[in-house]
What does this fold into?
Amino acid sequence: MIQLYLNIIKRIRKMNILIVDDNQVVRHLLNNTVKGYCKLQECSDFNIFEAQDGIFAMEMMESKKIDLVLLDCNMPRMNGEKVVESIRLNDNWQRTRIVIATALGTEENVLKMIKKGANGYIVKPFNQRTVFKTLDAIMTSIKEA
It folds into this structure.
C-alpha cells in the first residue's frame, strides 16, 4: 500500500529533461528524439528545457527540478565536464541522471565522464535507436530509484 502511494506521488510531478548543447541543430534533434521516445512510451508527463552552454544549464538546474540532463562536452563558457562536477557536488541533484552526448567518444573520455558522475553516453553523430536505447536504460534507473 505504501509503495502504491509513493508511485502515485511520483506521478504527480512531470519529469523535467534538460538538453544542453551549444549547437542549436543538435538541441533540436535531441528535443525531437526525446519527444518521439516519450510518445512511443506513451509518457506524456514530461517537460523539455534547453540550454546553450554550461552556465545556462546550471541556471536551469537552480530554477527547475531536473531529472535528466542530456549534455554536450565541448561548449563555451562552461564545458560538460564542469557541469557534471557541479551537479554531483550539489546534494540536491544527486538523483539527477546525466547522459553525455558528444563527438568525443574515445574510451578514455567515456571512462573519465562516467567516473565524474555521468550515467550514460551517446556518441555523435547519434541515431534514434541509440538514443532510445540509452533513454530506456536511464528511465528504468529513474523508476527503480
Residues 1-6 have pLDDT under 50 and may be disordered. The chain has one domain: 15-144. Residues 15-144 form a domain with the Rossmann fold fold (CATH 3.40.50.2300).
